[in-house]
Amino acid sequence: MREVYFIKQNKEKWLGIEQVVQGKIKKNPDDLSSLYINLVNDLSFAQTYYPKSNTTVYLNHLSSQIFQKIYKTKRVEENRLIYFFKTEVPLIVYENRRYLVYSFLFFIFFMLIGVLSAIYDNEFANLILSRGYVNMTIENIKNGNAVGVYQDGSTWGSTIGITFNNIIVGAKLYIYGITCGIGTLYLLMHNSIMVGTFQYFFYQHGALGDSARGIWLHGAFEIFSMVVEGMCGLILGTSILFPKTLSRFNSFKNGFKNSFKIFLSTIPFTICAGILEGYVTRHALEMPLILNLVIIFGCLGIIGFYYFVYPRIVNRRIKNLINDAIL
């Protein structure tokens, strides 16, 4: 069968499924399963005869959306908050995983720009970090206390201020995606260059090890969350730029809904980063090195698992559940 005829023959059915996914048409669980079976059959046909076609990509995307809706409709009674973090967010992250990769690549690229700029321009650190901060930190390093800046102020006051500021920065990274992603990339560039410059500055003054022991205690959660928030902004931006088969407005609504849920999932990590920075980082150089490493790599492992590994596990589990239900 020619692809054009295949599309013409099934177009109305697929558009109807889109209406169901968007919530414009209500279906009971049995009807949803029937729709999914038909869609899987169409996807299998397309994968066989048009493997590199946009039709196959479209059907694969649509099938992933409908099985999320089936599972959400059929799921057993479960605390909504637990379901949100345990199933809903990981499925959305899996579906948009390429944007997480893009955000990480941009972060690494911009961070390297910060490092190279600091290497070739001695004034770059003063420009990015401010001359006052640089002079104060150099003095702290000379006094053998590279993380002295984190010891100012009360623990609870620092925690509240830092957490609030980090949430605002993350929200901007996300919301600025409405500029078709340009605002998100600009903020991600600014923060990534700052991270690169910051780390090279300590290396330049022989305190990279001490700074890493302190900064990455909270930075593991804080920086990783920043990258995920950049991912949210990219999702929002591309939903406007590339609506695919949807109207631009409906594409934006879907992009906003999905990216907002991912953004919300970063809030607990941001709060934990604020608590660590307010209460733990100030004691970084007094702690045994092994404890620093356990906290740093433990935080990296937790957040890395949640956004990179766990979504694949959930996606595989849901597919198995649906296939078992269909069979």
Automatic annotation (TrEMBL):
Coiled-coil spans in chain: none
Keyword Transmembrane helix among UniProt keywords: yes
Keyword Transmembrane: yes
Keywords noted in UniProt: Membrane, Transmembrane, Transmembrane helix
Pfam families found in the cross-reference section: SpoIIM (PF01944)
InterPro entries according to UniProt: SpoIIM-like
Highest taxon of the lineage: Bacteria
Positions of transmembrane segments: 99-120, 156-175, 182-203, 223-242, 262-281, 287-309
Protein name (record): Stage II sporulation protein M
Species of provenance: Chryseobacterium formosus
